[in-house]
Amino acid sequence: MKRRAAQADTAAMSSYRWRSALVLGLVLACAAGLSVRALELQWLDRPFLAKQGDERTMRVAKIIAHRGAITDRNGEPLALSTPVDTVWVNPQEINENIDEVPRLAKALKQEPQSLVRRVTSNLDREFLYLARHMPPEQAARIKALGIPGVYLLREYRRYYPAGEVSGHLVGFTTVDDQGQEGLELGFDQVLDGENGAKRVIQDLYGRSVQNVESIRAPRPGRDLTTSIDLRIQYLAYRELKAAMQEYRARAGSVVVIDVGTGEVLAMVNQPTYNPNDRDQIKAGLYRNRAATDIFEPGSSIKPFVIAAALESGQWRPDSVVDTAPGFLKVGTKVFEDEHPLGTIDIATILAKSSNVGMLKIALSLKPEQIWHTLTALGFGQVTGGGYPGESAGMLSHYSHWRPIGIATLSHGYGLSVTPLQLAHAYATIGAGGVSRPISFERVTGPVPGAQVIPRNVANSLVQLMESVVNAEGATGKRAAVVGYRVAGKTGTAWKSTAGGYSTDRYMAVFGGVVPATRPKLATVVVIDEPSGKLFYGGEVAAPVFSSVMTGALRLMDVPPDDLQNVPATTLVQSNDGP
To answer: Whole-model pTM?
Structure first.
């Protein structure tokens, strides 16, 4: 019995030792296997695993470049880029959590089923926009939902502080911040920056936890300081809008140019639009009529035909013309004045806007003389300011002119101009016949120009145009500016229609320079189809000129040149002012 017990103990001990050895062997084998696997992962598979890890956590993030700001000449902002966030998803990632999409759709205020369809129909992509240009605080709430595959991208959205006041001039950008119209388009290469890139490590929720390296530094766009004076821009906008409402007009434009530099100080149109509201960005609203729309200028062209006459040497400022009996037949067409004027001088021809007087002067000149003068003043060509979409107008070559064509051209028909082009021509006359290129950028120092009209001719013409405002019975009396001498010309043109001209649709125009003794500003006002009882340029456009120039001259501290004709009460009120 004892022997059997001893044998049992020996067998148990042997079994224990065998099991212990087996367990130890297994442990050692596992340890060896793990060690081999560890070595394999650390050395043999390390490049592959590192690559896989990087693909899951490392991303190349875009660094959006800041678009340059647009300011007026005094630093007032016209266009700024404000930071916004764009929500995007990786469809492949979010598809693994498709049950989270309704929660995301609710936060985005989108229809859940529609969002699901968008995600599932783009599973071959790794990038899908969900919402562009959201306020950062709103985008942050979406990010806080913690839905895998949902990411934010920092972008910039264009904001226009002056709104519709400068809408036509400044233009707007696309949703991707690329210039689309106006100065935004014309100076896009200057304003647009170059995006940068960096490599980052992201966590499960797409949050950057570490910047690994900079691939390319962003290059911000350059700021643009324009020639615009926002104070004068506001003033022109206000006065034009008031005139549009008063005369129930279809459209209108005002252009103000610095005579000495060629800088555009203001350019406004009606009807206008607000570039901050993309629902208003429609072709019929956002085109800049002052630079793109052409019209027949009517009598506002007459001073430039007079310039050709003076330059020819056949006519002098004190020359007279017999306009009796008040009409003149050219070919089959009869041209007449509103009232017989008899024998009058050139100043009276401009002041009374005599068609017969202009006709006799124009027909006495060679066609090439008129054409060369008009061409030198910029008609039939763009102004050189680089404004996108600017029209060159229309001025046919003199070889195609016939007497009837010269007759109609002498009082503003048969050629087409833009408001900007017409203002440039008046600025050239005001600058003593020196043509300076139009500029939408602020310039410093003297601006060289070409002497396209003899100085004595230009100076004489300015003096003759003063009669349009201050002569007895002149057409432009309502363009007067208290304390300043004004030189300008009214214009009222029938609008062309199919087969001829309308007898009840007009373009009312006034263009001029001020102060006449030493012109500083050249301005053109165009009112398209005034529909009230008043429709002549001297009745509709001239008052707008007066109001805009009165404010602009004060804002620019231009000294008066006609104080002797200022009423005493006005002087007292002025001295009491600040």
So the answer is: 0.83
